[in-house]
């Protein structure tokens, strides 16, 4: 109750003064005065300054915290980006290492595949030669068997006849055994020479195939070089024509520039002459102006004397009119003279332009004729294209096999040395199988003994089994290489022709999917 009564009481004059003081302290910053303030007003103003600076400090602190959080966020993003960059760099290095490893493996596979192909070719050729030799040996063995039977019949007849006639001589039997041992030695020597010659023929056949492959690649390279040469020749002719056109344009521009320079010098001289004429005319005009002023002064003096004389006044007016007409006539004459000069200059310029156009047309015609003559001369002087290279010689037929016996001993030694070095380096088929991870099984050909043919011939000569009469075999057609060889040849051709600008059709049909 008392509090309510206090609030409802009217305000005292002291409280009004305090309110006025508070209102004045708000305007203290704007209404400065040299009169010192009371103590309570100074404290109030200091408190307001403190509050203002405190607010500014809080705002600055908020900005600092916001900037600090933003910088921390940027640092986190930078660390994340650094981590990602390092990861990508490591991935890039690993990919490069893998690429180098794959390239090294590819180069190794290429070398091994080439070795395998060469080994396969040599083995195939050796097998073909051995098969032909085997057929010849079987034929000769059958003939020997027939001869042996005939000799046995004759020997039995002779023995029976000899037994009837007299006793057997031991020395003759010994001579027969010696002759049989000599024939066996000769047979062994012949078998060795046949084996050596078969190896040599296989090596020569492999070299022939590689030479044919090199010839095919050389033909392809020659065709691509010829195409590039023709293209470069066309470009050169086009560049020469463009150069000739540019030269003619340059000559025309030089001629036009010389004409323009002469015309500019003439115009400059004319302008200088006109300037000098204008200066002279200006000096004359100044002189005439001075004379006019003098005459005007004199005329005013004369008019002052003869003001009352009308005849003199009329004469003066007529003189002035005549002077004006004379000046007009002179101006018109000068204008007509300038127009006539302008017409003459235009006609001369038109004639010069016509002559220039006619000269340009004439020069273009002459240039075209010169180009045609040069083209005809080049066409006449150009030699015909070289004939295509001759085809490789066909392979030797089986009937010409015995002719290979006459081989030089130097060639035999080189072939033997090449085979020895090939055997020392190792089997390339096994190398490639090991690299590809293919398990290799021992072949049946490796398990056979070296003298199997000798055993068969000895059994035939001993008469243990008989041979059927063989018919005449037809001429064997040349067998196509198997699909694996075709695929290997295609791979080698594409690897060697990689990087070239032009592509040509393959020599062999598309390979089939055959496991090595």
TrEMBL record:
One of its GO terms (cellular component) is axonal growth cone. The keyword Glycoprotein does not apply. InterPro entries: Shootin-1 (IPR024849). Keywords: Coiled coil. The keyword RNA-binding does not apply. GO terms for biological process: neuron projection morphogenesis; positive regulation of neuron migration. Residues 43-126, 180-376 form a coiled coil. Residues 497-516 are annotated as: Disordered. PANTHER family: SHOOTIN-1 (PTHR46606:SF5). This is Shootin-1. The lineage of its organism: Eukaryota, Metazoa, Ecdysozoa, Arthropoda, Hexapoda.
